[in-house]
Specification:
- The chain is α/β, with parallel strands linked by helices and 358 residues long.
- Among the domains are: 1-40, no CATH class; 42-75, no CATH class; 85-197, FAD/NAD(P)-binding domain; 321-353, no CATH class.
- It has helices at 20-33, 125-137, 147-151, 243-258, 267-280, 298-309, 316-331, and strands at 44-53, 56-63, 68-74, 77-79, 85-86, 100-103, 117-121, 140-144, 163-166, 170-173, 177-180, 185-187, 190-193, 197-198, 212-213, 216-217, 220-221, 225-226, 232-234, 339-343, 349-353.
- It has a 5-stranded parallel sheet with strand order 6-13-7-8-9, with helices on one face. A 3-stranded antiparallel sheet has the order 1-2-3, with no helix packed on it. It has a 3-stranded antiparallel sheet with strand order 10-11-12, with no helix packed on it.
- A hairpin with a 3-residue loop joins strand 17 and strand 18.
- The longest helix has 16 residues, at 243-258.
- Its cofactor is FAD.
- It comes from Polypedilum vanderplanki (Sleeping chironomid midge).
- It is an enzyme of class 1 (oxidoreductase).
- InterPro entries: FAD/NAD-bd_sf (IPR036188), Flavin_mOase (IPR000960), Flavin_mOase-like (IPR020946), FMO-like (IPR050346).
């Protein structure tokens, strides 16, 4: 599930859970296979993307190596930048806290948490990894999370008595701790924010048709196409998804329309679909992030893309494997990587546990 359909990993790569270096090596070989390097501009930074007509864009690029600016005109724009800007919750008093504050993006080791009282906020994979490690060295950990609202599933972990699993949210921070919505108060020395990332597009002009509000990219048809200016597409927004097969599916969706094989609905029709999809793709009423897919919505989204654009859908085995792994990790997060998956056909897969289950 970490490869594109037209190029496979080397035969000697058999791991089900790949290390970053193996994924990077795959991308390098993919680039060589399809002679893509000549199209890539290294050491260039996009400064501004602005529409100059309904179907044309002007892009200002900074050549960092030669310290000069260039202007490019193009007909279509793919935005594939991912997410890297930390999302910091807006909670009263956060700036008044006199201890240390760290975001998971900057987390490298547990040294700073040794024998400290820690408040950890977050319900994603980063929070899971951090709480398991910090629990081993900290004096006390107050962990604020709500997995059911975020993922549609509850994660079970075996943590020490030093870690308090708290579902109540922070009402306000003080210089030395926080008051919670349930009326309790806790003191701590470090705030660890595993609160995810925000979608930011600093290079887009105000008339680009794209805006972000409350961690949701607005007015994207099928979470891809800029409904205000359909010659722009953003790839890879849905979180907790089958990454590379999804990216490929989204790109093929765009090309069906941009090639003229399919015609876009009117802007009004696209906006109506957007509002409908936001409701359908919510995991439950408490989840406001429509770009956060979970067990209840991922298959709906993948199949809808294929049906709408009349393209080949994702193999059902990918979705089955992903859903199995989400459920498996919720039962045994510490050891969920100790399994080897083998795809048998488009619908079935096998599993082998590589270590003795605890």
């Amino acid at each position: 599930m970490m490869e594109f359909s037209d190029f496979s990993y080397d035969e000697n790569v058999t791991d089900s859970f790949l290390t970053p270096d193996k994924v990077q090596n795959y991308f390098l070989k993919y680039t060589e296979k399809f002679d893509l390097r000549k199209h890539i501009k290294f050491n260039h930074k996009v400064i501004n993307v602005q529409p100059i007509s309904d179907n044309q864009w002007e892009i200002i690029v900074e050549d960092l190596k030669n310290d000069e600016y260039k202007t490019i005109t193009c007909d279509k724009v793919f935005i594939c930048i991912g997410i890297s800007a930390p999302w910091i919750p807006k909670i009263e008093g956060l700036n008044d806290f006199e201890g240390k504050i760290i975001h998971s993006r900057d987390y490298r080791s547990t040294k700073m948490f040794e024998n400290k009282k820690v408040l950890l906020m977050g319900s994603g994979v980063s929070a899971l990894d951090m709480v398991i490690e910090i629990d081993k060295v900290a004096e006390k950990v107050i962990w604020i999370n709500n997995f059911r609202q975020t993922h549609g599933a509850q994660i079970k972990l075996e943590l020490s008595d030093k870690t308090i699993d708290k579902s109540s949210t922070v009402k306000r921070f003080t210089k030395s701790g926080a008051e919670f919505e349930d009326g309790t108060f806790e003191e701590f020395e470090i705030i660890a924010l595993a609160t995810g990332y925000d979608f930011t597009f600093p290079f887009l002009s105000v008339d680009s048709g794209i805006s972000v509000y409350d961690k949701l990219v607005q007015q994207l048809y099928k979470q891809i196409i800029n409904a205000n200016r359909p010659s722009m597409a953003i790839i890879g927004l849905p979180l907790f998804s089958i990454t590379m097969p999804l990216f490929e599916l989204q790109i093929k969706f765009c090309l069906q329309y941009w090639s003229g094989r399919k015609n876009f609905p009117s802007k009004d029709e696209m906006l109506k679909v957007i509002q409908k999809d936001i409701k359908v793709l919510k995991i439950d009423e408490n989840v406001h992030k429509a770009q956060c897919l979970g067990l209840a919505s991922d298959e709906i989204y993948y199949n809808d893309l294929a049906q709408t654009a009349e393209i080949k859908p994702l193999k059902p085995v990918f979705i089955k494997m992903c859903n199995f792994q989400v459920k498996n990790s919720s039962k045994n997060y510490r050891n969920f990587r100790d399994y080897e998956f083998k795809i048998l056909n488009d619908f079935e897969f096998s599993i082998e546990c590589l270590t003795k289950e605890k």
